[in-house]
């Protein structure tokens, strides 16, 4: 009897370590044969390529089962709940509500993956490389495309025309599983340094199955560079032509932008782009919340403060609040201590 190793990965896509454990379960026996009774295997915690917590396990299946279909799932544990089914998405069949995944056993090593969320799988995301600077990976779902490329645009205009004007660089993408296309770090030097490509405008150039070419924004974009209201290629009747700047450009028609989700702007609107004032520690506070106590200084807004202009979340109001916070923060008498107590972690 020969055994075929099958690897399983459960990828959370979440930076916060919400899960304290996971177990793989599937309809195979200890001998690696298809079975009615599902077995369980502990999963090992690791850090995935997106820098997020993940879990993995390996089982050996008998090669006599090659070509047969197996079902599997993952049971996860949190600090509050020890056993929770970790697959919220239903199977892709309209008449069923089961929440598991299936695979057909091949005749070589194979890896089955489940993505709890695709927010760090699709789009422009950090790629963690041990011993090297973080890189960037672009990914898009285009199952019927002949080819897909990333095209980089200009920050001043933020727009790429249907005929390709505005493209300053092109990066190839490669078709992988599940209809996805991805870049590889070696495809272009700019992909090797995530910090250097932040705030870079981009789009996807897709060659459709009929050979037509289309430029598309990223559905998983965290930012669109346009902040105006004009569509350069379809102006409204009586509207002044687009003036060539991102400030005059409709965001939905503009380039997407590479944005680091770990960085948080200090001000609602700085009036400059890229932003230069960041709350560098804020994301670290959130990520660390389940590892250590966090002390936060809370400032109460004085009763006599009034928004400078009427309306919710106006630039002038948000800037005024930020200035007020800096002013009050300089006076320790105005601080109130609030301590975030993390849940007890296993083994502490």
Low-pLDDT residue spans: 285-296, 337-348
How many separate domains?
3
Shape: globular
> What's the number of extended β-strand segments?
20
N/C terminus separation:
44 Å
Provide a count of the helices. Answer: 3
Roughly how much helix do the residues carry, as a percent range?
under 10%
Rg is 25 Å
Strand content: 25-35%
* Proper CATH architecture of the largest domain: Sandwich
CATH class of the largest domain: Mainly Beta
Q: Mind describing the biggest β-sheet?
A: 5 strands, antiparallel
- The CATH superfamily of the largest domain is known as Immunoglobulins
- What's the rounded overall pLDDT mean? 86
What string, H for helix and E for strand, traces the elements in order?
EEEEEEEEEEEEEEEHEEEHEHE
Category by helix and strand content: mainly beta
Query: Might you state the CATH topology name of the largest domain?
Result: Immunoglobulin-like
What does this structure look like?
With 348 residues, this protein is mostly beta strands. The protein folds into three domains: 3-115, Sandwich (Immunoglobulin-like); 123-257, Immunoglobulins (Immunoglobulin-like); 280-340, no CATH class. Helix content is 8%, strand content 33%. The protein is built from three helices and 20 strands. β4 (44-47) and β5 form a beta hairpin. It is globular and about 75 Å long.
């Amino acid at each position: 009897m020969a055994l075929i190793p099958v690897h399983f990965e459960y990828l959370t896509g979440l930076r916060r370590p919400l899960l304290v454990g996971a177990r793989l379960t599937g309809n195979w026996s200890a001998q690696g044969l298809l079975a009615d009774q599902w077995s369980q295997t502990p999963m090992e915690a690791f850090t995935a390529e997106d820098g997020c917590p993940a879990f993995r396990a390996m089982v050996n299946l008998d090669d006599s089962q090659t070509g047969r279909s197996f079902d599997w799932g993952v049971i996860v544990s949190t600090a509050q709940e020890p056993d929770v089914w970790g697959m919220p998405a239903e199977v892709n069949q309209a008449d069923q509500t089961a929440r598991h995944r299936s695979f057909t056993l091949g005749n070589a090593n194979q890896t089955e993956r489940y993505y709890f969320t695709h927010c760090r799988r699709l789009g422009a995301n950090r790629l963690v490389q041990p011993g090297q600077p973080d890189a960037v990976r672009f990914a898009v779902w285009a199952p019927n495309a002949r080819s897909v490329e990333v095209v980089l645009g200009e920050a001043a205009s933020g727009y790429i025309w249907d005929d390709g004007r505005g493209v300053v660089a092109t990066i190839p993408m490669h078709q992988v599983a599940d209809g996805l296309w991805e870049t590889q770090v070696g495809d272009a030097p700019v992909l090797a340094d995530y910090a250097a490509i932040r705030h870079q405008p981009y789009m996807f150039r897709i060659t459709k199955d009929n050979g037509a070419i289309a430029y598309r924004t990223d559905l998983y974009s965290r930012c669109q560079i346009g902040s105006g209201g004009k569509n350069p290629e379809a102006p409204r009747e009586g509207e002044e032509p687009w003036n060539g700047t991102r400030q005059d450009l409709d965001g939905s028609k503009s380039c997407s932008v590479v944005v680091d989700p770990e960085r948080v702007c200090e001000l609602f609107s700085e009036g400059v782009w890229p932003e230069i004032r960041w709350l560098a520690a804020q994301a670290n506070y959130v990520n660390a919340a389940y590892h250590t106590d966090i002390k936060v200084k809370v400032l109460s807004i004085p009763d006599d403060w009034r928004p400078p202009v009427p309306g919710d979340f106006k630039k002038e109001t948000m800037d005024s609040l930020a200035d007020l916070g800096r002013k009050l923060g300089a006076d320790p008498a105005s601080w109130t201590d609030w301590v975030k107590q993390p849940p007890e972690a296993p083994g502490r």
